[in-house]
Amino acid sequence: MPKRYYVTTPIYYVNDKPHIGHAYTTLACDVLARFKRLDGFEVKFLTGTDEHGQKMESSATAAGMDPQAFTDKMSRNFRDLARFMNYSHDDFIRTTEERHKRACRDLWRRLEERDQIYLGTYAGWYAVRDEAFYAESELDEGPDGRKTAPSGAEVEWVEEPSYFFRLSDWQEKLLDFYEANPDFVLPRTRLNEVLSFVRGGLQDLSVSRTSFRWGVPVPGDDGHIMYVWLDALTNYITAVGYPETGAGEYTEYWPADLHMVGKDILRFHAVYWPAFLMAAGLEPPKRVFAHGWWTNEGEKISKSLGNIIDPFELVEKYGLDQVRYFLLREVPFGNDGDFSHRAMIGRINSDLANDYGNLAQRVLSMINKNCGGELPEYGKFTSADKSLMNEGLRLYGSLQNDFNKQAFSKALEVIWAVVSKANLYVDGQAPWALKKTDPKRMGTVLFALAETIRHLAILTQPFMPDSSARLLDQLAVPEDHRTFAFLGPDYMLIPGTRLPKPEGLFPRYQEEEDS
Ligand code: MSP
Fold it and tell me: Are 215 and 226 in contact (CB under 8 A)?
């Protein structure tokens, strides 16, 4: 049986242009998907757009467009971002696609057949921005007497006929499920939030609306359209071929290994979604990881503050791999983090240019100048050489561990600890001085370094695919020898291999005079 891994991003609302938050969530999934592929897994990596609901309908109206034309146009921005950021998704789903509407209808029928849905009337608060219902007790009241959701979104009173899902029946079963699967929600602190919400008691959930039209009609009662979150969450099974559950991708990839989400949408993924699935007789996903939020130079990012960070601009300014590195290195994954240009430049100049770039550059130029541009022969390895090379060998296991916990910044820290050791080793061994005194020894030292850099370049591929590929090119590592199966000790570089002329990988960022 091949090892398989299924990872998903949230599907993004298309009413706004993509920003750093969207780029961040998908990046984390991309890095994970790339890691797993290099580690021999058959991976399915899904992203896409969430195109139904009241918010989309009113945004389309405001733009003077028909909702389908509006979502067609806006969804393209997210596909452009995905290409631009070099994401390696295997599928991009849109909830307006027929395959998805079919899956929604089927899930609805399944729930209905199991008596999990009944008709009633909803009277309560609704926040269009969150597309979420709120209990009175959850709301805050502003000085003007207007009520707002915990997210800050305005709420409106809604009273309309509605189908309800018997969420209240699932409280105990959900609690049992969390207990049996302690890593279902990560980080652990987020699990506590989920537990306290569920222990607080669950109300039946309104799962249809009648006051607007833009959505999937309820089978058999098309005066109702399905609640946009029931529709949206279903995308995760649509993409593996649901309603076909007996064959194909569903059997290969479901339950998903990981739904990556921001902390704002944890409740939908960790409470409603497993309840819907269990109620339909389907398996819940294996894990939901809720990451933190970015602020911009200390301020909450919001359209009204006008401080949205545009990922396209960021990449133009700093470079793609630089941005990919920064976003996953700067903040322990799961925590909130602050974006600042100073921090970005600091990481580029110190971690990338000074540490990693400089290591590669000096070793490759010494080989180029002193070994005739060929990988040198090596003699007997000393304990210092072995100790450095062992660091490289040990990295893989330790990264597997970190990746299984989505600890991306930790993984980068561990990689950079080896970069630092390698730089210290260069200083300590001073191969430039050996050139005259002991050229054979110089060859051994440079070979040990090249081997270490090969490990680093293979293992940084998920984070920085382009730069790592260029570094592997400079080491003349064949393209089909770049997976984790080629990490040592069974495989090594071959002395005598001709190397291309070295070129710098990570230029220092020079601040412009006026910035
Ligand atoms: N459409 C729903 C998700 C449905 S999934 C079945 C949705 N879409 S969204 O466009 O609002 O995207 C939300 C996601 O964007 C968050 O969960 C988070 O992943 C990301 N972020 C949005 N702003 C963010 C920050 N400021 N910082 C980090 N990520 C944030 O919710």
Answer: yes
Indicate whether this model's pTM tops 0.90.
yes
Measured from the Cα of 292, ligand 1's closest atom is 28
Q: Which CATH superfamily is domain 4-292 in?
A: HUPs (3.40.50.620)
CA–centroid distance, residue 12 to ligand 1 (Å): 6
- Average pLDDT of 424-434? 97
How high does pLDDT run on average in the chain? 96
Task: Give me the mean pLDDT over the 174-181 stretch.
Answer: 98
CATH-assigned architecture of domain 341-491 = Orthogonal Bundle (1.10)
**How far is the C-alpha of 331 from the C-alpha of 21, rounded, in Å?**
13
The amino acid sitting at 347 is R
Pairing of strands 221-226, 217-218: antiparallel
Q: What is the DSSP letter of 480?
A: G
Ligand 1 site-directed mutation target among 11, 22, 228, 291, most atoms within 8 Å of CB: 22
d(CA 293, CA 264): 9
Best of 7, 13, 104, 328 to mutate for ligand 1, by most ligand atoms within 8 A of CB? Answer: 13
* Contact between 81 and 18 (Cβ < 8 Å): yes
Residues carrying CATH 1.10.730.10, the chain: 341-491
CA within 13 Å, CB half, 213: 5
Is the bond leading into 489 cis (omega within 30 degrees of zero)?
A: yes
Cα(313) to centroid(ligand 1), Å: 20
State the closest ligand 1 atom to the C-alpha of 265, by its place in the atom list counted from 1.
Answer: 17
pLDDT of 181 above 80 = yes
Q: What residue spans in the chain does CATH classification 3.40.50.620 cover?
A: 4-292
Q: What is the pLDDT of residues 217-269, one digit of tens each?
A: 999 999 999 999 999 999 999 999 999 999 999 999 999 999 999 999 999 99
Ligand 1 lined by 25 (C-beta under 6 Å): yes
> How would DSSP label each residue in 155-210?
-EEEEEEEEEE-GGGGHHHHHHHHHH-TTSEESHHHHHHHHHHHHT----EE-EE-
pLDDT, residue 512, reads 66
- Report, as an integer, the average pLDDT of 206-214: 95
For residue 70, report the distance from its CA to the centre of ligand 1, in Å: 20
Per-residue pLDDT of 287-320, as tens digits, reads 999 999 999 999 998 887 889 999 999 999 999 9
> Strand, coil or helix: what is 106?
helix
Checking if the pLDDT of 514 tops 50, the result is no
Q: What is the rounded CA–CA span in Å between residue 50 and residue 22? A: 13
